[in-house]
Design brief:
Layout (H helix, E strand, L loop, with lengths): L1 H15 L1 H12 L2 H17 L10 H19 L8 H8 L11 H7 L2 H12 L4 H8 L3 H16 L1 H8 L2
Helix pairs in contact: 2-3, 2-4, 3-4, 4-8, 7-9, 8-9
């Protein structure tokens, strides 16, 4: 009986955040089918562990944590595979581009280490407060602040732009 209430909380969370959850998964794998698989697996995992939810306020961060961890697990399992979607393939086939063009944000995020990329995505793209990011990642608020600062510093650094911003 009590798990039915928790399932309702979870179902509402999934329904309300389906686009955001997909976007998070896609930001890791850059492939529509794999992102959908991650979302599906995350939903399955969350339903299997629904009894661990204690209150409706924690459902969103709990579910986002599952999505992030499932995405990271997917990347570890497929580390040696190069995953590209049609859009990225077209970018590489277009030929030469202006070398002075603004840095491509998507490519820059892809090149960030996962712990920094996750903080940037959750904070700026999912518009979460630092406290919410800390809850999703199960780390201290100061750790989130440090990672955010280091990620922004990396993005701004000329070494990073020179090394990762141009091919």
């Amino acid at each position: 009986m009590f798990n039915k209430q928790k399932e309702k909380w979870l179902t509402k969370c999934i329904t309300d955040n389906k686009e955001n959850v997909y976007r998070i998964a896609y930001s890791y794998v850059k492939n529509k089918e794999d992102a959908l698989d991650i979302v599906q697996e995350s939903i399955y995992k969350s339903l299997c562990h629904v009894e661990t939810i204690h209150n409706p306020e924690s459902v969103k961060s709990w579910f986002y944590r599952i999505v992030v961890n499932t995405s990271l697990d997917f990347l570890r399992k497929h580390k040696k595979e190069v995953i590209t979607d049609d859009g990225q393939l077209e970018l590489h086939l277009e030929g030469t581009t202006d070398r002075y063009e603004n840095m491509d944000l998507v490519k820059t995020l892809d090149e960030l280490p996962p712990k920094y990329r996750t903080v940037i995505i959750l904070r700026f793209f999912e518009d979460m407060k630092i406290e919410e990011v800390a809850e999703v990642l199960e780390v201290n608020v100061n750790t989130v602040k440090t990672r955010l600062y280091q990620a922004l510093k990396l993005i701004r650094s000329s070494d990073f732009i020179q090394h990762y911003g141009e091919e």
